[in-house]
Amino acid sequence: MLPYLFVLLAIAVRFLPFAGPFNFLPHAWHFTPLAASLLFFGARGSRRRMWVPLLLLAATDVVLTKFIYAYTFSWDHLVTWAWYAAILWLGANLREKSGPVRVVGAALASSVSFFLISNFAVWAAWPAMYPRSLDGLMMSYVAGLPFFRGTIESDLFFSIAMFGTPVFLLALSRLRRTAGDHIAAA
Known about the structure:
Number of strands: 0
Mean pLDDT: 90
Distance between the termini: 36 Å
Oligomer: single chain
Strand content: under 5%
Structural class: mainly alpha
Order of helices and strands: HHHHHH
Shape: elongated
């Protein structure tokens, strides 16, 4: 159940900038649980249902692009969706071993790969934005730097929180059970 809830949280956060007073997370700086929810779903969600978060997030992209931002839809969205699938796959590699170092490594890989791939796709898909040269590509990466910090921070924060939630819940249930055993023995 948690993998689905975390994906729904990621989707809800993407709509927060349009929620008026309910906008309490700085989505504009890419502080979102998107990559963390994909990593967690890959690690803890159903393998047969990996298409669910991919479809939900792609549909969210379409709604945001066409109806909220009123932008044109282009092939760079396909690159983003391929990245979603890659992060799900990366999360699936955490299924057997998801210790803190591996989770942090996957979160960092998510951040860096999104930065590199998405800025390259914008440079390639939108020739009016940046010149078709190495300088233009570097301009695209420089323009993305202010958002990169938020991406790294949120991927680390939410990945640790999401992967830590089941550990916390297990410890809490053991604590309750131990407290219940002491009360029953008294």
